[in-house]
Amino acid sequence: MTEPDHYSFRRYLDAKRTVDRRARNRRVADAFRRTLERFDESVELCEIGAGTGAMVETILEWTAGTEVRYTAIDADPALVEAAADSVVDRASDRGHGPDRSDGTVRVDRDGATFEVEFRAEDALAHLADRDGTYDAVVAQAFLDLTDVQTALSAIADGLRSGGVAYFPITFDGVTALVPPVDPELEDRIERRFHRRMDTTEKVGGETGDSNAGRRLLTAVPATGGRIVAAGGSDWVVRPTDGGYEADEAYFLHHIVDTVESALAADGTIDPERLRAWAESRHEQVADAELVYLAHQLDVLARWPASA
Ligand SMILES: C[S@@+](CC[C@H](N)C(=O)[O-])C[C@H]1O[C@@H](n2cnc3c(N)ncnc32)[C@H](O)[C@@H]1O
User: Fold this and answer.
1) Tell me: the pLDDT tens digits for 48-64?
2) How many Å lie between the centroid of ligand 1 and the Cα of residue 178?
3) Which protein residues touch ligand 1 with a CB less than 6 Å away?
4) Which residue has a Cα nearest atom 19 of ligand 1?
5) Which of 297, 233, 240, 301 has the alpha carbon at shortest distance from 21?
6) Ligand 1: distance of its center to the CA of 142 in Å?
7) Rounded distance between C-alpha atoms, residue 29 and residue 284, angstroms
């Protein structure tokens, strides 16, 4: 693949679906699924930073016998539109015949209705406005973009007493690309890339957190909650049979471009050396040689801790 002039975030989110599916921690996911199955009545669920709807489709699959009222929020209206289109397509493929009107998609599954309201807005402000509304909150690949403790306070406010929050794919401080092309430079690239995450304003005017996964383990109790389950969910993207699964080559090109762009803005690495590094990494993807690892944690938590 030749490098495009610019990469599409929407295509990146779609390309990462197969990577996330492999990575999600089964034990934590099963604990969340069991929690959802215990509801006799409709579950009120809110997803924050829903992107193109990957988790909406996953939870549609996970809750076949449970009635769900889902609020899927993303700050980017184009992604919200793409998410609604994708959920309609997926539900149609599964023979459900979804109804779509005014930002809502309704899927009738033999009585266990799955209704999604798609909203383009700031998700943390939404939760702060909906005090005590939700049985469950989901945030996949989101908490590393903000201050974890501030986000957890908003999430705890949005939950009913005894409600749970599921945080799959929360980045936790390790990025590795192998085989090496410039080992001395790459140590600096990893350090400066994480530092850039920690100092660049992202969600809600807060800077990101390259150690968000481990931060969650102390921030949940600090905000009055309890960890129900936690485990690793590392991304491992590697070539098999001379290529990558699904659209994962694009996913890798996008990651290399993200690292290069962050470090170009950081300005601490010589631009020519950085460009040469990125070109070598793009070539490794094209030649099906690059292996990419990112360490992440999945966490399921409940508020208050005594519930
Ligand atoms: C890394 S992406 C993850 C998307 C999706 N959860 C997934 O795993 O495919 C983070 C998402 O958070 C969204 N986002 C960023 N700030 C937000 C905010 N304040 N409120 C709602 N969504 C936000 C971005 O638009 C982006 O779609």
Assistant:
1) 999 999 999 999 999 99
2) 28
3) 13, 48-51, 54, 73-76, 79, 122-124, 140-142, 145, 203-204
4) 122
5) 233
6) 6
7) 33
What is d(CA 252, CA 248) in angstroms, rounded to the nearest whole number? 6
Q: β-strand 104-107 against 235-237: which pairing, if any?
A: unpaired
Ligand 1 atom 16: the closest Cα is on which residue?
Answer: 203
- By three-state DSSP, how is residue 249 classified? helix
Atom index in ligand 1 nearest the CA of residue 142 equals 10
Please tell me the distance between residue 146's alpha carbon and the centre of ligand 1 in angstroms: 11
Q: What is the pLDDT of residue 1?
A: 47
Domains of the chain, first to last: 9-303 (3.40.50.150)
Task: State the pTM of this model.
Answer: 0.96
Tell me the CA–centroid distance for residue 123 and ligand 1, in Å. 9
Cβ within 8 Å of residue 127, ≥6 positions away? 46, 48, 134, 137, 154, 155, 157, 158
Nearest CA to ligand 1 atom 18: 122
How far apart are the CA of 128 and the centre of ligand 1, in A? 17
- What confidence tens digit (pLDDT) does each residue in 50-105 have? 999 999 999 999 999 899 999 999 999 999 999 999 999 999 998 888 999 989 99
pLDDT on residue 201 = 78
- Report the alpha-carbon distance of residue 221 to residue 216 in Å, rounded: 9
pLDDT tens-place string over residues 187-225: 999 999 999 999 887 777 788 999 999 999 999 999 999
